[in-house]
Amino acid sequence: MPMRQSKKEIKLTGILVPMDWNTKGKITEIGISATNEEEYKIYKSSPFFDELQKLISQQIYLSGSIILNQDGKPLLHVKNYRLCQLNN
Question: Which band of pLDDT confidence, cut at 50, 70 and 90, is reported for residue 72?
Answer without folding.
Answer: confident
